[in-house]
Amino acid sequence: MPLTDHQELAAESRGGARLVSAAAGSGKTKVLVERLMRYVDRGADIDQFLVITYTRAAAAELRSRILSALGERIAADPMNRRLRRQTELCCRASIGTIDSICGRFLRENTHLAGISPDYRVIEPDRSDEICARVLDKLLEELYETIEEDAGVRALVDSFGSGDNDDKLSALVLRLYKSLQSHADPDAWLAEQRERLTDAWNDAGDTPWGQYLLSRTRSQAQYWAERIEELRLRLDEPDRDAKIKKAYTNNLDFAGDAARDMARAAALGWDKARLACPGSFPRRGIYKGDDPLAQRIIAVWTGFKDTAAKWQELFANDSDALLRDLAVNTPAVDALLALTQKLGAAFAAEKKRQGVCDFSDQEHLVLKLLTDSSNGLAAALSSRYTEVLVDEYQDVNACQDALFRLLSDNGRKLFMVGDVKQSIYRFRLADPTIFLKKYETWPDIETAEPCEEPGRILLRENFRSRPEVLESANHVFRNIMSRELGELEYDEAAALRPGPGRDFPEGGGAPTEFCILTPPDSGNDEDEAENDERPDKVLHEARYIASRIRRMVDERTPVTEDKTLRPCTYGDFAILLRSNKAVTPRYRAALAEQGIPSVSQQGGGFFRSTEITSLLALLGVIDNPHQDVPLIAVLRSPLFGFTPDELSAIRAADRNSDYYTALCLRAKEDEHCAAFLAELESYREIAPDLSIEALLARICDKAGVFALLAAMPDGAARRENVCQLIEFARQFEQDGYRGVFRFIRWMKQLDEHGKEPRTGALESRNAVQIISIHHSKGLEYPIVFLADTAHKINLQDRNSDVLIHPSLGIGGRVIDSSRGISYPTIALRAISAKLTQESLSEEMRVLYVAMTRPKDRLIITATWKTPEKTLDALRDDLTAPIAPQLLEKSASLSRWIALAALLPDSPIKMRIIPASGESASETAPPEIEPAEPGESAALSEALTWEYPYRWAEELPSKITASALEGTDADPDAQSIAPEAQRRRLFRRPVFGAKDAPLTGTARGIAVHTVLQFIDYSCVSTPEQVRGEIERLKNAEHITPAQAAAVEPKAICKLFASSIGQRILHADEVWRELRFSLLTGAETVFDAPAGEEVLLQGVADCCIREGDALTVVDYKTDYVTAKTLAVRASEYAPQVRAYAAALTRLLGKPVREGVLFFLRTGESVSIDCRAKK
Description:
By secondary structure, this protein is α/β, with parallel strands linked by helices. It has 47 helices and 29 strands.
C-alpha cells in the first residue's frame, strides 16, 4: 500500500528536528523503515543511523523489517553490491534500547568515565540490595549525631516510625529512585534545598499555593458556569412557577458564591479563604415532575461538596501555612542532604565493586557528553546522519538530554510517538517532554528542507473498522482535555480511517457497553460497584466466556486480507487493567465453556501448578533442608502426598526440619522412601547436567507430560513446562550456571511481571488474556475490555510524604506535644497534582485499550445497581464532560458510561440482568398474612440481641507484645519468639547473605546477643566485640546479625544504673517465657468472669531481695520529644510482664524498666498492684 500524504511527509522531510505524532494504527514503524530506506537509496549506509526503541523485542522487529525492505530492493536490483552490503551493516547497526546504546558507548569510553573496563551491569534487585546496605550504614552514622544535630532529630521525628527506621529508609530510597529520571539529580536536590530558604509573603506565592489556587479557581469557574446555565433554564417562560420559587434563591446564592471564589482565588490565599462559602441556606422543596429539579439538586449537592473541600483546604490562613513550612524545613533539608549523601556513597560502593546499574550507564554517558573538554558529544554526533527515536512519549529528562547531545543539539533528531499512549509514568516516563514540543512546534506542510523544528501528524488509522474509530473518537472528544488527560482531543488528535483501507461489509458492529448486574444484587447502595469479590469477577468472566462461545458457534465474521472468515478462539482478546489477581477466574470461566486460553501476563505462568511444583522441586534438589518448597513438592500432583501423610512426617520428629523428619518417616513408610530415592537420584546427576537437561530428565522420569495431559487445560500446561525449559536454555546461554541462581532469576522475572510471551503461545487457537499495558502495540480482531468497574487506585497519594518532579517534596507537620500530625500546603498540592496526573494516565490507558480491536469492541462492567447509577450520572451530565465530574467518577466504566449517555453516542449500552440476556419477567410469590399475635412474637425474636456481645471481641489468647498501645491485637501469635522460629525455618544463609537486615531483624540480633552474652565481658567495646564473635561462631547469630549489633550500645546499657543493677542482682533471668490464664479484666476493659491466655517472653528479670524488676529492651529511635510517648505506648506491655512474672515466680514485681538501646535512655514504669 502506498504512503499517505502525511506518511510521505514524515518519510521525506529533512533539515531540522522532526516530531511525528503517530496515532494508534497509523503505521509509524512503516514510516521509520521507509525514511531509513530513502536515506539508503541516496547513498547513505544503514550503520550511519542511531535508532532507539523502547524494548528489545521492538528493536528486533525493526531490524527484521529493515532487512525485509532491503531484501525487496535487492530482489529488484540483484547486482547492486552496495545494497547487499547494507544487509551486513544492518546486523551491526546501532539499533537497540537506550540501555544497550548507553552500554556500548560507555564500554568504548570507560577511561573517560573513570570506571573499570570490565565493569558488570547488575539487575535492579542486586542494585537495590547494595543501595539498601549503603543506606543502612549512612543511617547508623546519622544516628550518632542525633543529639547534637537538630536537623537529624527533625528528620527522625517527621519521617521515622519510632520503633525502627524502615519507614525512613523506604522514603529515602523512593526519593533516590525518582531522581534517576532527572538529567542532573544533584542539581534537583540543590534546587529543592535552595527553595526551602525562599522567603514568601503569602502562601499563594509558593509553588504549592499557586497550584492550589489555580485549581480552586478552575473549580469555581466550572460551578459558576453550571449554576448560571441552570439559572437561565429556570427563568424560561414556560417553566413551572413552583420550581422557580423553590430553587431561585438557592441558585442565586450558589452562583454568587462560586463567582466570588473564582475572583478571590486570583488575588491570594487569604482572599480565597475569606471568600470560601460557609453555611448554605436550606435547599428548597419542589414536589412537581419537572426533570430540571433533579439536575438542580445534583448541582447544588455537588457544589456543597466542593465547598466543604474548600473549607478544609483554606482552614488556615497564609501565616499559619508558612509557619508549618518553616517547621518542616529542617526535616526536609535533612532528607534532601541524606539523599544526596546516599547518591555519592552508593556510586562509590558500586565503583568499588566494579558494577553499574542501568540508570548509571545513562548518567555516566550524559556526564561524558556534557563535558565539552573531551569533544565526545561532537564526535558521536558526527558519527550519525540522524538519530531516530521510537516511542518518544515514554522518555524521561535524562534520556531526552542524551538524544539531544547525540544529534547535534537536536538538529538531527527524528522522534516518533503518540502522547495519548504514554502509560509508563510509573516507570518515570515524562509525557510533558513530548507535549511541550507537540504544542509549540509548527506543522510541517511540505517536504522542502527546513532547518526549523516542526511536527508532522499521522492521524489515519489502518487497523480498525470505522465503528471502532467512531466510538474511540466519541469517548475521548468528550473526556480528554488539557486539564485531565494533559492534551486537548481536537481534530488534530482524532482518528481517521486510512485511505485505501477498505473493510468488507458485514464484519463490523457498533461498540457495545454491557453493564452486568451481579447475582446477589438487591437494593443495596451503589458503593459496592467497585467491589472486587471473586463472585463478581467470575460472573463477568462467565458472561464474556458465553459471548465468545456463542460468537464462535454462530460463525461471527472477522476480517482477513480484505475478506471475511468465521472467527476462531484465537481472534479474541480479553484486556484487563490489572490482571494478576483476576486472570485465574477468567481462565476458569473460559475452561467451563471448553474454550482454550493463554495469559501473557499477570501470574498465570508463575502461579500455575506445574511451574510452582517444578521450581519447588529444583529448590529441594539444590537444598532439601527447606521446609516450604519440600512440602510444596510432596503435596504436588507429581508425588501426591495426602495431608495425613504430611502430618505423619511432621510427627516423626517435631523438633528438626521437615527433611530430617521425612528421613525418619521413610524407615517405615514406602511412599516416603520412594520419594527420597527419586530425590537422591536427581541430586546425584544435578551437578553434571545443565538445568535444561535436568528439567528434561525430571519430566521424563516423573511422567510430567502424561500427568499434565490428564489435567484440565493440559495443552496449555504442557506449553508452560516447555517454556520453563526454554527459560533454562536462555539462562545458561547468557553465561549463568547453578540451580539456585536459576530459581532466583525466575523469582525476579515473576516479581517484575516478565511472563513468557512467545510465538508458540500467540499462534495457538486460544483466547488471549492480557493486561492493557502489555497489549500496547498489538491488535486483535475482537476485543473484550473487561473489569472496567475496577476503581482507579489512588491510595499512594495518601502517603505521609510525597514527591513530585516540579513541586518537590511535601510532608506532614508532627505535633508531638498534642500527638497529632497534619499535612502542609506542599503535601496537599503534590497530592492533588499527582492525583490529576494519575487520572490522566488512566485516561491514556483507556485510549490504548479502545484502539486495540480491528473489527469489534465489547466493553463490560459489573455494577450493583445500574439503573440508579446511570440516573445519577445523567443528572450531572455535560458535553464535553467536565474534568471535575470525571475526577469524581474515578473508574473507566463510569467514564465510558458518561460518554455513552451523551446524545448521538455510537456506543450501544446494554444492561444485562443477573439471570442473563434472556431473563424473563416473573411475578413475585404471594405472601400469606400473619396470624394475630404472631407479629409481636416474631418482632421480639428478630430484635433479640446477645447480651454478652462484648465477650465476642475478646481474643482467646494474647501476647504481651500485642499490648503495645491501648488496643489488643485479636490476631496475636504464639509464644515462640521470632528468633526461635527463624532458627527452625530460617532461609539458608547462602540465600540471605546479600539481603540487608530489616529493623525487626536487627532488633532480634540485639536481643539474642543480650540473651547469651557473658556479663563479665561487657565493660568495653572490645570485650563486647569478642562476645559477639563468640556467639557468631557458636551459631547463635549469623554474620549479618553480628555486624548489625553495635558494641557501644551494649556498653552503654551496662554502664547505666539499670545495667549495674542487672550485674549486681541476687538473681537474673533472661528471655523468661510464660504462658498462663488470666482474667480478661486485667488486660482489657471487660467485666470479670472471662479468661484469656496470656503469652510472652520477658527480656530480663532481676531479683533484688524480695522484689522483682522486669527490664524490657527496645531498639527504637527516640528523642526527647518522643521518649514519653513511646514509653506510654509500651507501658501496658511491661505491666503485663509484671503481672505474669509475679504469679510465675511468686514474688511481687515492683518496677518495670524500658531501656532504649540506641540512645541509652531508660524509663521506669510503676508495676505495683493497684489496691
